[in-house]
């Protein structure tokens, strides 16, 4: 429900088995799961739109291509996912290919929607770069919110079926999510691209920081522990 697709057929996305088999179905199912969790955690929560696309898409924030990776546009309150990105995450960035590596990405983008609802997402633009800038703090908070989702996803039941969204998460599942977080750390991407690390141009945080804040959310299940703007120690 609530998902649109551009050039991608979602008619076969009906069951949990479909979500386990097809990446596009998994993205949609994960979005439903994140909505289910935040609806219980945040008073007045409204779900974002979700749009799946291939190669390029027009958004309320302007045109975008695959190169951007998954993103959230606050103007149209939509999370955008190119399903091909998840293979790039493995092939180019070295993430594991496990399901929770992919679901972490969805939960992170929905975390930006939560920030938008709370009125803090705009802070990223005020101080967008640097190792302790608001841009990094915004991204690390979204990682923490993804961890909060992971904490509750295996105990939150779907309204219409009474079945939990996910089976209890194993250590390997969490390792998959941490692998994805690690693979998209600014330091890792910079070292891979240029051979050196420049924290002054960071926008998302280091691999260690991204793993740390996902873990904080996952272990505590408490969105209040995700206040990356209030801490002097980002990790």
Question: If you had to describe this structure to a student in words, what would you say it looks like?
Answer:
The chain is of the alpha/beta class. Helix content is 48%, strand content 10%. The protein is built from nine helices and six strands, in the order E-H-H-E-E-E-E-E-H-H-H-H-H-H-H. It has a four-stranded mixed sheet with strand order 1-2-6-5, with helices on one face. Strands 3-4 form a two-stranded antiparallel ribbon. Helix 2 crosses helix 4, helix 4 crosses helix 7 and helix 6 crosses helix 9. The longest helix is centred in the middle third of the chain and has 20 residues.
Features of this protein?
single chain; 235 residues; alpha/beta; four-stranded mixed sheet; two-stranded antiparallel sheet; 9 helices; 48% helix; globular
Number of strands: 6
What best-fitting shape do the alpha-carbon axes yield?
A: globular
Distance between the termini: 37 Å
Radius of gyration over alpha carbons?
17 Å
Mind summarizing the main beta sheet? 4 strands, mixed
Q: How much β-strand is present in the residues?
A: 5-15%
Average pLDDT value? 92
- The topology string of helices and strands comes to EHHEEEEEHHHHHHH
Class derived from helix and strand content: alpha/beta
Oligomer: single chain
Instruction: Give the fraction of residues assigned to helices.
Output: 40-55%
Tally of helical runs: 9
Task: List low-pLDDT spans.
Answer: none
What strand line-up does the widest sheet have? 1-2-6-5
């Amino acid at each position: 429900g609530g998902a649109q697709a551009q050039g991608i057929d979602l008619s076969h996305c009906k069951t949990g088995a479909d979500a386990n088999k097809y990446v596009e179905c998994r993205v949609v199912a994960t979005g439903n799961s994140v909505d289910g969790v935040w609806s219980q955690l945040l008073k007045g929560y409204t779900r974002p739109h979700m749009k799946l696309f291939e190669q390029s898409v027009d958004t309320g924030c302007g045109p975008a291509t695959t190169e951007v990776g998954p993103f959230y546009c606050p103007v149209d309150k939509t999370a955008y996912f190119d399903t091909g990105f998840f293979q790039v995450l493995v092939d180019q960035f070295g993430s594991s290919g496990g399901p929770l590596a992919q679901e972490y990405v969805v939960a992170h983008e929905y975390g930006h929607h939560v920030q938008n609802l709370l009125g803090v997402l705009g802070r990223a633009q005020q101080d967008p770069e640097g190792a302790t800038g608001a841009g990094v703090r915004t991204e690390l908070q979204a990682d923490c919110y993804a961890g909060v989702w992971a904490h509750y996803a295996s105990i939150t039941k779907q309204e219409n079926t009474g079945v939990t969204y996910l089976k209890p998460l194993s250590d390997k599942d969490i390792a998959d999510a941490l692998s994805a977080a690690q693979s998209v750390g600014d330091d890792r991407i910079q070292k891979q691209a240029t051979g050196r690390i420049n924290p002054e141009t960071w926008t998302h945080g280091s691999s260690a920081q991204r793993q740390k804040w996902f873990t904080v959310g996952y272990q505590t299940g408490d969105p209040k522990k995700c206040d990356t703007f209030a801490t002097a120690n980002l990790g």
